[in-house]
Design goal:
It contains one helix and 13 strands. By secondary structure, the chain is mainly β.
Length: about 140
């Protein structure tokens, strides 16, 4: 395997999660982010003071990420190459919605509970998921 092909199939050594798999835990930092496909539904669980990070490769264009469930989540869209926060969405009530026109590259969605209080399950749709679903062990 060529080095560039190997680099594209991992994120800081973490292999790409296959649809239908259950990941042990989404990393709390950019370098430990779970590597997931774009256009996938992610079912996660966040604890008080915890951050969940998901890295993915995006082909370019209109990137979309939407959460469901009742948790008050804050979400950051981060460019993986330099850690720049491109967009933040956090409200005092309910789910988040991120949408940005971005070039092709690797990005990270990092979520946490608003004001670091509470815990529970959440669902994130990256793009328009069809049959792809990834679950995080809670």
């Amino acid at each position: 395997m060529q080095p560039s092909a190997q680099a594209a199939s991992t994120h800081h050594g973490t292999p790409l999660a296959k649809p239908g798999t259950r990941i042990a835990d989404a990393g709390s930092q950019n370098t430990s982010a779970a590597f997931v496909p774009y256009s996938c539904r992610i079912q996660g669980h966040v604890r008080q003071g915890d951050y969940d990070s998901f890295a993915f490769d995006f082909p370019g264009g209109q990137l979309r990420a939407v959460s469901y469930q009742g948790l008050n989540l804050v979400a950051d869209l981060i460019r993986a190459t330099d850690g720049a926060v491109l967009q933040r969405h956090g409200v005092d009530t309910g789910p988040f919605s991120l949408s940005a026109n971005v070039p092709a590259g690797r990005y990270i969605i990092q979520v946490r509970v608003m004001h670091h209080a509470g815990a529970g399950p959440y669902v994130i749709d990256l793009g328009q998921p069809s049959s792809c679903q990834i679950s995080e062990a809670g």
